[in-house]
Amino acid sequence: MNILRALVCPVLLCAALISAHASTAIADPIEIEHERGTLRLNTPATRVATINWAFTESVIALGLDPVAIADPQDYVDWVAKPDLPDSFVDLGQRSSPNLEALRAAKPDLIISVPDLGMSYEKLAAIAPVLEFRLFDGKHPAFETAREVFGKIAKATGREEEAKAYLADIDQELVKYGDRIKTAIGPDQTINVVFFFDESNVGIFADISLPGSVMTAMGVPVAYDGEVNKWGFGRGGLEILAPYARETLVYTNPVPEIVLDKLLNSPIWKVMDFTRNNRVYELPVVWAYGGVPSALRFAKLLTETIESGPQQ
User: How far apart are CA 249 and CA 95, in angstroms?
Assistant: First the structure.
């Protein structure tokens, strides 16, 4: 009996030590680099509040429903997919989220942007805050979106899900790019534009989210002029003239009255892309979003080009 106890006790002791070591490893804090330095979380966040649509869609894509969301109605109109969860706290406007509603949602993580019209300290008094800058006019927006997606996955304990999601996107972008190049021919480049009103237009360059996604797809971006930090140039319709021999795709939503005036304006009618039937209308997709919007843009752009130009 004593011999048996002598053999068993060291085994139990080793098992206890291994278990204790494993517990210690699990308890190691999660560290995420962000605009304010390093945020440390003792455990993965499960109750996330999002104050930017790019973060909202990213959290949902990782399989976690945010407990609080800013501007949810406008998200439906401008981002569209992925669908919002059935239940969450509406935080009101992104520029000035309702702090009482945010506190009532009891988040264990808030994800925000640096240029929010509210101090970081007010948010940090409610829960740990991650601040991510998505656009700086220097780095391709799609690359930044991928980095942010990975950090959100780390903060929520969903890194394996993120790796699988990003690997799938890489494969899909190559396939979509090949389909577009087959549809438009080897010599065409594409301009993706949006309309401020009937006479002012924004045109995306390769550093923007649409442009950097197209680059990842192997689809050439036509516009190479000056841009702001979001990666687009802005001007009257004449800004399109140097690129009129290329393919033009415009985004939605656009008010019907604006579109009618623009499409019937003399300068629009003389553009080569109009006269030679190379204008395409893209369904609603968020051009300033995260990785999910990037994939949605690639899919819709491909389907739009393959469906043929606007009649």
Answer: 30
Question: What tokens were used for 180?
Answer: 């577009």
Give the burial class of 1: count Cβ atoms within 10 A of its Cβ; 0-12 exposed, 13-18 middle, 19 or more buried: exposed
Q: Which residue has the tokens 């804090």?
A: 29
DSSP-based three-state secondary structure for 163: helix
State phi, psi for 156 to the nearest 5 degrees: -105, 10
Average pLDDT estimate for 171-178: 97
Sequence-distant (≥ 6) Cβ neighbours of residue 120 within 8 angstroms: 36, 112, 129, 131
Packed helices 53-61 and 291-307: angle between N→C axes, nearest 10 degrees? 90
Dihedral angle at the C-alpha atoms of 19, 21, 27, 30, nearest 10 degrees?
-130
Give residue for tokens 């396939």: 175
Question: Tokens representing 200?
Answer: 């002012």
| Cα maximum dimension of the chain | 101
Read off the pLDDT of residues 23-73 as tens digits, 9 standing for 90 and up.
Answer: 445 568 999 999 999 999 999 999 999 999 999 999 999 999 999 999 999
| Residues whose CB is less than 8 angstroms from the CB of residue 253 and which lie 6 or more positions away in sequence, other chains included | 77, 78, 284
- Can you name the residues that pair with 110 across neighbouring β-strands? 49, 129
Which residue is listed with tokens 């919002």?
Answer: 84
| Residue 10: pLDDT over 80 | no
- Burial class of residue 26 in the structure, from the number of CB atoms within 10 Å of its CB (0-12 exposed, 13-18 middle, 19+ buried): exposed
